[in-house]
Amino acid sequence: GAGVSQSPRYKVAKRGQDVALRCDPISGHVSLFWYQQALGQGPEFLTYFQNEAQLDKSGLPSDRFFAERPEGSVSTLKIQRTQQEDSAVYLCASSLVRAELSTEAFFGQGTRLTVV
Amino acid sequence: AQSVTQLGSHVSVSEGALVLLRCNYSSSVPPYLFWYVQYPNQGLQLLLKYTTGATLVKGINGFEAEFKKSETSFHLTKPSAHMSDAAEYFCAVNPQKSSGDKLTFGTGTRLAVRP
Predict the structure, then answer these.
(1) Would you call B28 exposed, middle or buried from its count of C-beta atoms within 10 A (0-12, 13-18, 19+)?
(2) Taking a contact as any Cβ pair under 8 Å apart, which residues of chain B between 80 and 99 contact chain A?
(3) Of A30, A35, B52, B104, which is least surrounded by CB within 10 A?
């Protein structure tokens, strides 16, 4: 597709349930990011991939959060044993690594997760 | 740690009036700077960015921003507001200036445009 695609757009999970959020980046984009956006807040960095390598996972809030990108394209963010504080919009972004130092990340529409 | 401060979580202007959204950053060296817009139930869309060169940056939809190193600011302006500008605006920095580096966002400013 032309843009970053995320699915599902909306997810309601019961507390304690595991969820998996999918991100299809723009074709050919090397870098992929996950951000968490709580209600009324700006996005906060979760993790970053360059191709299939997870180079930075410093933003993952707990070991219940796990992300993968096994073939360097589609990525999945998994949250185990969801808690109410996990309720947020999860944004995926991708960017094309360039030789010159200029970053532009393209964002998907996000997945709104509500934990009840 | 790098941080971004957006003054005013809500700004309201009349249609046709000047839009001014404030952003200040803290960084030991000038970072790359960005403004993103978010419409309801949408992802973030890049308005403009500053990397190097001219400090006055022009973006889409008539917006522009000026990087002022001495003030550590990157305020967003538009001479004449349009109803379609109503959205949430986020200022962000890329402190390491490297492609692929994470962005640090401000908390956002919600712009309302009165008819």
Answers:
(1) exposed
(2) 90, 92, 94, 97-99
(3) B52
> CA B49, B50, B54, B56: dihedral to nearest 10 degrees?
60
Contact A54, A67 (CB under 8 A): yes
Summarised one tens digit per residue, pLDDT across range B12-23 is 999 999 999 999
Query: Which tens digit of pLDDT belongs to each residue from A66-95?
Result: 999 999 999 999 999 999 999 999 999 998
Place of tokens 């994470």: B102
- State both tokens at A94: 């991708």
* d(C-alpha A82, C-alpha A59), whole Å: 17
- Residue from the list A4, A42, A98 with its beta carbon closest to the beta carbon of B108: A42
- The strand ranges marked E within A43-87 are 44-50, 53-56, 65-68, 75-79
